[in-house]
Amino acid sequence: MITVQSLGRTFVGSVTGVALETITPEQFAQVEAAFHQHAVLVFRGQRLSDEGQLRFSRMFGPLQKRSNYARDRERLTSDEMMDISNIDADGKLFPPDARQRAMNMGDRLWHTDGTFQQIPSLISLLYAHEVAPEGGNTEFADMRAAYDALSPERKAEYEPLVLEHDLFRSREQVGFQEFNPDVRALRPPAKQVLVRRHERTGRRSLYLASHATRVVGRGLEEGRALLQQLIEEATRPEFVHAHPWQPGDLVMWDNRCTMHRARPFDDLRHRRVMQRTTVIDTENSVDRALREGRSLLLEEELSRV
Ligand code: OGA
Ligand code: MN
Predict the structure, then answer these.
(1) How do beta strands 9-16 and 40-43 pair?
(2) Measuring CA to CA, how many Å separate 136 from each of 101, 257, 270?
(3) What is the value of pTM for the model shown?
(4) Complete domains list, the chain, with CATH
(5) Phi-psi domain of 208 (left: phi exceeds 0; alpha: psi -120 through 50; beta: other)
(6) 262 close to ligand 1 (CB < 6 Angstrom)
(7) Would 61 disulfide with which of 133, 147, 243, 279, CB 3.0-4.6 Å?
(8) pLDDT tens across 269-298, in order?
(9) Ligand 2 ion: Cβ-proximal residues, 5 Å cutoff
């Protein structure tokens, strides 16, 4: 029998009584309901093959493919499986100056996955093969609770706002300096709403990430100050849950209504081997909000005034 217990914070549920490798449709229905009630689910003691993780993930929808996938140089053989590890294709730890290591540092800032894509990431599923002996937690923040805690005036102020997100904004903040125009051109910025309404539950949340570069219609400085303030407020201890990893943990989160960040560990000495599958959304969040009849502050409207 499947049981779900809240882990301190009500938005994180710990699920027992299901082997994800062989999950049945009936069990899946229960897991899906629990997922939408919470927003983060933790499954411990799993024994998942890559195929099993892919199969379970696909039950939630189509998976995101890696854009820069090079089968001959990758440790993982599926272009739908992302390597969130500190080892290369030969199983060796990344050296201090590895490009991928610098790139991964951006995950230590509060973010939600894929907001810099036109079609963002919906659900991420991260499975731990090997964990660091110390450090390396992942922290989660409840963006529904952060939204609910705002005053009615602030909710009204934020409702029409649109943000521009750029992967290189979060990377720039950790000192990553490869701003090669060819690389950047592969990942142009994307616009997303600031207040996101969940299609399944109807609940609103703050849709924020360290990838956010600017608030559309506001000056750069003013916009960035607002983004920083909102991220700070939304990640107050009362909204945050830390997950200490064990091998065999699968943690899945809803990118629509949570943020997360990786905590440091001694990555030059210890292996941390994690694999992520990612369910992709069907539509850009600005397009969806407009289709639902919301009025948003888009650049074009401002210049018309
Ligand atoms: C991710 C991520 C955090 C971590 O996989 O999207 O941000 O702790 N991971 O590895
Ligand atoms: Mn992430």
Answers:
(1) parallel
(2) 14, 22, 10
(3) 0.96
(4) 3-302 (3.60.130.10)
(5) beta
(6) yes
(7) 279
(8) 999 999 999 999 999 999 999 999 999 999
(9) 113
